[in-house]
Amino acid sequence: MEILKGAGVWTHPGEAGNDWIEQLRTSDLSVGTYCIPVGGRDAQSPHTEDEIYVVTAGRAKIETPGRTDEVSPGTVIFVPAGEEHRFTEVTEDLVLLVVFGPAYGSRSPES
Measured between alpha carbons, how far is residue 103 from residues 6, 63, 77 in Å? Predict the structure, then answer.
């Protein structure tokens, strides 16, 4: 067992404007926290792994090619590998607990 300290907790974004911190990595999954400040821009590209987002704080919208939904604390989102998605209209500092299966980047051609 392991307690993941800091998972899902706001951390001040770096100069890039957003912040991703990985708190756990195994071959089968990874867990981290992604933070986007009010008015921030989410420029992520589709991932090669499935992912689950759990909104722990903040408000925004998530957009995919066919859908836009509002998200707030308690919202749980599944994004399959390869699906384009991004968070927009961040009206309150957004904190996302993120679970990748398998681990983030493990299916990338560079891996």
Answer: 19, 23, 17
